[in-house]
Amino acid sequence: MPVPWEALIPFGLVTIMFGATGTLLNTSKRLQNQGKPVRYNVDAWDDMMMDRDKRLTGHKRGQQAEPHAPEDFETNSVWYTERAS
């Protein structure tokens, strides 16, 4: 049975476009996470730690090596913004 050579051009284009899209999506997600891989299966503890890291450094994936938190860390808690009833 002869090979339909005309079908190889669209097959190659579709393969290249899927590969390019996947590569760009992976690159975009890594750039949003400061070069670190994407987190999967995030539970409540991880969510709380990401919120803490965001308050400490300004980014949910940023971490700080200093032993003491900045002075404004005491006043930027989410609990201060909720209304007490």
Explain this structure to me?
With 85 residues, the chain is an all-alpha fold. It folds into two domains: 31 residues; 35 residues, no CATH class. The chain is 46% helix and 0% strand. It is found in: Mitochondrion inner membrane. It holds the Pfam family MWFE.
Architecture blueprint of SSEs:
Elements: H1 8-32, H2 44-57
Q: Helical amount among residues, as a percent range?
A: 40-55%
**Biggest sheet layout:** none
Strand content: under 5%
Apparent shape: elongated
Please tell me the overall pLDDT: 84
DSSP helix count?
2
Helix-strand pattern, N to C?
HH
User: From the alpha-carbon coordinates, what is the Rg to the nearest angstrom?
Assistant: 23 Å
Key features of this structure:
single chain, mainly alpha, 85 residues, elongated, 2 helices, 46% helix, 2 domains
Describe, in short, the structure shown.
By secondary structure, the chain is mainly alpha-helical. The chain has helices at 8-32, 44-57.
